[in-house]
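Posting for a labmate who doesn't have an account.
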Amino acid sequence: MDWGLFAIFLAACGAAATTGSMFMPGAWYRGLSKPGWTPPNWVFPVTWTVLYLSSAIAATRVAPLEGNAYGMAFWAMQIAFNTLWTPVFFGLHRIKAAFFIMAFLWIAVAGTMVTFFALDWIAGALFVPYLVWVTIAGALNASVWMRNPNEAAQAAG
């Protein structure tokens, strides 16, 4: 493994993770109506740590490969939407806008997974848990949006 390349991808993941520490859930999030299947708060940082490491490893495997253009473009797209979601949801309290960002994140993660699978099956497999988690997170975002229509309307106004 090219450790320099890994460090670059891990730094990009670290930048995305930083938004999570800058925009904490807080009292606003605790006050929202959430479904009973909402994961406990401690699950989120643990899961994201594993997903960011897996994402950086996968990108490190694919980056030096010939024909990686779409895979790397999707990787860049997913890390951008990943970074954007937290400040929009937790910082701006824009539940609806965050849902649409999550939809684009899901597309980007799926695109990364598919294109990575075509180049390196291990790299593609490393993205499977990410797609599962983003699916859960998207469903949670949608549920919170539907369960809190007044909160979503206030943020939009």
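Reply:
Got it, the structure tokens are right above this. The chain is about 80% helix and 0% strand.
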